[in-house]
Amino acid sequence: MRATLPLTLLLSALLAACSTKGDIPPSKHIAQSGALRVHPGLLGKPVPAELQSEARAASTPAAPAANATANAPADGTIRMDDVGLRTQRSVYFDLNSADIKADFDPALRAHARYLAEHPKARVRIEGHADERGSTDYNRRLGLKRAENVRASLLTHGAGEQQVKVKTLGEARPKLTGHDESSWSENRRADVVYETEN
């Protein structure tokens, strides 16, 4: 009976502490309405332009981000026509992988069609990696990702002279956190238009 007395006291103290909310101000309570939202990058899906533009604002000029959001519908989804698909300018990869997921094929086809129709247009594919791994490994992985995106664009009709590659490795992260949500945003290759004529 003595051994159960401290356990009973501890249990009652825990229940009493859990049942009182009076010491937590109402503004600190966590409330959520609607369905739980998961960042599409975590699911390996394309990231809508509105989310890309927030992260891109720190690393690129304002004009491309404004252009990307101007072509997206008001609800933030990516239109499935060539103009809308071309606003999707990042291809995301799995950890330690340079394989392009099938989800990104429609957007890459739209970029390739645009390049084929506009021979003076030029793009640079910038390959990125997250912070894990050595600097040399991340630069090589970023280069392989950029080369695979370039190969896809060329396969779908873009001209050889229109597409060049550059690796940045871990040097320019989209998000600077040290968690999976940040790392998934940084495992990417960006299609950067140098000229769109």
Q: Can you tell me about this structure?
A:
This protein is an alpha+beta fold and 197 residues long. It has one domain: 60s Ribosomal Protein L30, Chain: A, CATH 3.30.1330.60. The chain has helices at residues 4-19, 49-56, 62-70, 82-86, 105-117, 135-155, 180-186, and strands at residues 90-92, 122-128, 163-169, 188-195. It has a 4-stranded mixed β-sheet with strand order 1-4-2-3. Strand 2 (122-128), helix 6 and strand 3 form a beta-alpha-beta unit. It is elongated, with a radius of gyration of 23 Å.
Number of strands: 4
Main CATH class: Alpha Beta
**Proportion of beta-strand residues:** 5-15%
Kindly report the name of the CATH homologous superfamily. OmpA-like domain
Assigned CATH architecture: 2-Layer Sandwich
Spell the H/E element sequence.
HHHHEHEHEHE
**Count of helical stretches:** 7
Rg (CA only): 23 Å
What count of structural domains? 1
Largest beta-sheet characterization: 4 strands, mixed
CATH topology: 60s Ribosomal Protein L30, Chain: A
Mean pLDDT comes to: 77
Strand order of the largest sheet: 1-4-2-3
Unreliable residue stretches: 26-34, 56-78
Molecular shape: elongated
